[in-house]
Amino acid sequence: MEYYCIMVLTGEEKSFKERASQELKDRFFGTDFFVFERKLFTNKRGWFDAVLFPGYVFFRTEELSPEFFDRLKKIEGFCKILRDNQHPVKFTGHALEELKAFINNGAKWGISKIKFLPGQKIQAISGPLVGLEGNIIAVNKKRKRITVQTTLTSNSVRFDLLFEDAEVVE
Q: Can you tell me the distance from the alpha carbon of 137 to that of 47, in angstroms, rounded to the nearest whole number?
């Protein structure tokens, strides 16, 4: 299987996933699309689910054939495949392992229990990031959020996750 990322219209991630799955399911059986959501809390909105990577949908397919790509480009909301439409880049190495771990943890992420020390590695004890390590960029203990830097993209995307029962790594 090959894994890729598509840029779509921001806010259309879940609807694009549904349209693409429906459009391609009959001809390309092994193809799956993925959008990840995290649980967040703000005083204004309360608890809500937010897309982890706004504007991006990940997918896996047997092969990125010209026929598959032509049909994919015609789906409403498609912007481009990453890196670009002439040079699609499939996930490999550590980024592929991280993406597979995200997929295995499901589309909706809860709260992770982690061990951390700011500026060093984190390790998830339970929750959606269990078994993964990454770099903590910032810790907000008051709001119980950590900012994590991922290796899924060449520009090292950062995102916030909620944590609980954090333990210091010695």
A: 23
Distance CA(121)–CA(135), nearest Å, equals 5
- What is the Cα–Cα distance from 108 to 105, expressed in whole angstroms? 8
- With b for 16 or more beta-carbon neighbours within 10 A and e for fewer, the 80-111 pattern comes to ebbeeeeebebbeeebeebbeebeebeeebeb
What is the average pLDDT across 1-22? 94
pLDDT at 154 (0 to 100): 64
The Cα 61–Cα 20 span in angstroms is 12
Q: Where are the beta strands (DSSP E) in 66-120?
A: 78-81, 83-84, 87-88, 108-109, 112-115
pLDDT band at 74 (very low <50, low <70, confident <90, very high): very high
